[in-house]
Batch of 4 targets.
Target 1
Amino acid sequence: MPTPSLLIVPARFKSGKLYSQVPTSGTGDFTVTRATSATRVNASGLIESVASGIPRLDYFASGGVVGCPALLVEPSAQNLVLHSRDLTNAVWSGSNVTTAKNAVGADGVASGATTLTATAASGTVLQALSHASQSRIFSAYVRRVSGSGAIQMTTNGGTNWTTVTISSLYTQVACAAQTVASGTVGFRMAVSGDVIEVDFTQGEVGPVFTSPIPTTTAAVTRNADVVSVSGAVSGAIGQTVGTIYCEFAYFGRPSVQSGPIFLRETSLRGLSIGTAGVTNINFTSRNAAGSTSLAIVTGSVQLNTYYKVAIAYDANGTAAGGSEASGVVAYVNGVQTNIGTFRVPDGVLSEFRMYGAPAASADNDPFNGRIRAAALYTTRLTNAQLAALTTP
């Protein structure tokens, strides 16, 4: 396997910087911008806050098993729920449910979370939010202490309820997004006597919930993660022939194009990997004359599922190592998924952004997920090499 011209496996960092493994000269080191603190899952599986500008190495836990670290990259978000960790506060209204702030939180802190005990069937704990009509989602970390009745969540005052699946371990769960004005969020417990513990409640604008944003007396905003390198990195980008590799998972399903990699010129044109709505993951090459798009994962994009994707492109229209007479070939998890045409960029690709798109872009949204690794090659890898590179 050839040596990549740029390789980033998120591991070494300092404030404002994420170091690449290749090249070693520093020209491949990424600048990290986020002007607020943010949370991650640490190596112990607990929620932890990190300072502004610190890359978030996230050890997302599935089924109680801490995973491999990955770079958590998210758009800006605001938590509109007040006293997000204390459901005993007066901003929360309980009916047939008792509340006590005595549970160990999802961050491991004693009395950091709230215990809810249903004293009658269909007991509720609710908080009214005031805002303009917009799409909003409500999420929380929840675990079951006792009982087996349905636990439901709402973002529109109970007009709609979503039954969520919980266990004895804290899991971030959410109700279905709804377009509401000044809607009420909260929980309903179907069976009297059931007990759950709740932490990091969150009401956000949009169809996707994100990592916890703790609040007390006022709404709190977390700024977007922007992770990019530009300038001399152009030498590590295959300008007309090359290969892009990325291992990533979506944390939340976007509603428009959003992806983990964007190689761009000074304009908004270039090469990108991202979703097309909520159905496909596409590779897009764009220049002033237009764009071509290749579906590389078809069907509904699975959340928190890692995809190992490699895209090889050749402006000459001939893909080495295979019979396909095409400028682009895609491999996902060891399998060739599609071939297509390649649109040559107008100028020099001089920026590598793990963000989805520049903040000013009108046709892309920021990535919302985790990136385990990314690499660039200035050569078109053979099909056999692409299969080997992406095999799980």
Note: The mean pLDDT is 90.
Target 2
Amino acid sequence: MIQDFREVMSNRTDEELIKIVTVDRNDYQTEAVDAAEKELKKRNIDETKIESVKQDIEEKETKDKEFESSIVSSGTRLIHTVVDFFGFLIIAFILSSILQLFYNPSDERTIRLVGYGLLFVSFLIYFVFMEYKFQKTLGKFITKTKVIMNDGSKPKLNEIFIRTACRLIPFDNISYLFTKNGFHDRFSNTTVIKEQKNYC
């Protein structure tokens, strides 16, 4: 068994070994920790580097925990869904009113096609424009939250397009009730966090 641990530890990176003998020490068997310590000595890794890497690991884990705790709840996402639905309808109503000034079809088929097209354009304008420009929709303004990438950066236009397109997946608007991030978050590598937090 000890020999097996030595072989396993010999394939680990310096950072992984340091994490094992410091931050995650209690998560490993004594023999595994001993093997990791011996491997570090074999590689001539000094205490200064060990302490430096340990601090980096602890800072990253603290930041990750803060980030995880900042992700909004399903209740907040429900508020977003309701408010954004009405926000989207307002945009559709405004565009419809403007369109009627210039174009007023009479046959039912054309009216239906124009209506669907208008809804789709309104949908894109509302979500793409709002989330790209402000990182938030009306619902997120109310709850003081914003959209970010999973790495903490601001989403680019193509990433917002992907996020918006994924909203068309059936049952997307209730998917966050079963998981912390809904379909449109998961497939676009985005998430919604409390606005006062800064992870960029």
Note: The chain has a mean pLDDT of 88.
Target 3
Amino acid sequence: MTTYEYIAKNEQGEIFSGFCENFSNRALLKKDLAKMGDTLIKVRRKKNPKLKNAKISQDEIVTFTFKLAGMCSAGLSITDCLETLHDQTEIRSFKYILADIKKSISSGSTLKNAFGKYRNVFSDFFLGMLEAGETGGKLSETLEASANYLERRADFKRKVKSAFAYPIIVGIMCFLVVSALIVFVVPVFSKIYKRMHVPLPGPTQTLIVISDIVRNWWWLILFLIVLLISAYKLLKNKPAIKARWDALKLNIPVLAKFNRKVVASQFIRTFAMLSSAGVPLVKALEVANIVVSNAKVSEITAELQKSISKGNRVADSLKQFEIFPAIIPQLAASGEEAGKLSEMLNKGADFLDKDIDRMIKSMLVRIEPILTAVMGIIIGFILISVYLPMFDYMTHFK
């Protein structure tokens, strides 16, 4: 199908713009607009914008959700909200997406189906909350809850990125310094030692071999790195490999406890938010599993769904799995007794998030000196290997 960008006029004489990729020619687009009482004014063909793979930042989605929630709570129709937000956004691909969603809704599509065409932009959690709000008549409330949740997740990702920025920068600097020494400094000393016929100790010989490999075979090293990255991207979504990798993340030494808390927090908060919006518990578990995207959690989710479907309490079901810290089933039990399950689970997720923050800070305190020490050892080894033959030569000269 060809993608068209168009300008049209409705029955009230109001001019609006949009795009469509569901028609093979202009005549069909004009006919479709006429069915809704709209008149096509101008149309042009777009060159394959690839909207299915459009990358919209999480901050943009959070801002969009907050605005949509506020406009819906003010009593505006969803199509009017989308039209206004379409005009406000400056991101071209997002404009196209909002225009297409508005058109789908105007044609009678449900909100979930209209937004669901762009799952790469709008998460499964957002779609689940959207469906709950539409069917339960609480669209503005669920949208605001979604925005708060998405904002919290975006803040968490920013915290993790900023926390590990220093170690990453140190690692990159170490790599650049070592590469410069190996490529430029070591060959100079190697030539000097050959002319002087100085016997080379083991560390120096090893360093020279590494330097020769890097300088003469850099293209092969680069090819292997690209090959490994390509293989990783190709294989990471294979069910068997993904299952092993997900299991490894939850059991790997040092990081296992951290990864388990992150997974538990995401799962519990998503489940709590969806259940508070009126989504059935079994369905809320399914969406929470999709959001977490971990093969091991998928197995746990299937067991939880079976347990809850049999009539067991959420607290008793959660207690069966070690991945959920003891405080989560305890808070769930209190919430079920008081009729405030989602509220208590959210508090449990808050507790886990605070614990995760403490763990990140603790890891950084340990990582920074380790990185500095490793960098010092590597550079020290290179310098000693370079100057060791010269020291031996000076000794013989004396």
Note: The radius of gyration is 29 Å.
Target 4
Amino acid sequence: MIRINLLGTPKSRRGGSSGTRRTAPVALPSEGPSTLLLALIIGVIAALGMGAYYVILDKQHTALTKKLQTAMAENQRLSIVKTKYQESLKKQELFERRAKAIDQLKADQSGPVDMLNLVADTINKTDAVWLEAMTNDGKSVDFTGTALNPNAVADLMANLRKTGAFKTVEIRETAQDPQNKEVQTFKFELVCEIGKIQKKTT
């Protein structure tokens, strides 16, 4: 009886035979070239990224350097302005002190004159009193004079207070003048503490 193998593949026999044909293994494509290419691409991308980042940092550094230079120049300019301003303040203070010193000298010179004018006007406005002596020590003024009666002395004290130039007006002594026998007169002595003299405007 004849058997026909339609598949064309001979059946293997037990024990094997040297004439049996074996199928050769199929070779798979190697992955080496693809991995190397991918690594190369990644390296190029990384290098480009680092280059771009360096360019950005360089631009930022340049911009910050310019801002720093501008700030330093502005600071130097403000420092010069501040120095000039302080110098002007010192000059202004010096001028003010000189002006105050000149005003004080004028006040010291005109003080006695103003006091004399003030006292003269007050005596002229008061009836029956005559001023004989006046002593000014800078703090107080002593008046010595003669009045026809005690009321005239009281009027003089009231008029001196009205001037506003004296803080206090006090009578130290008053007594009848024994030397004047024809007319009754009274000797008086006043002590007035100096305040602020008000200058009269014409």
Note: The radius of gyration is 61 Å.
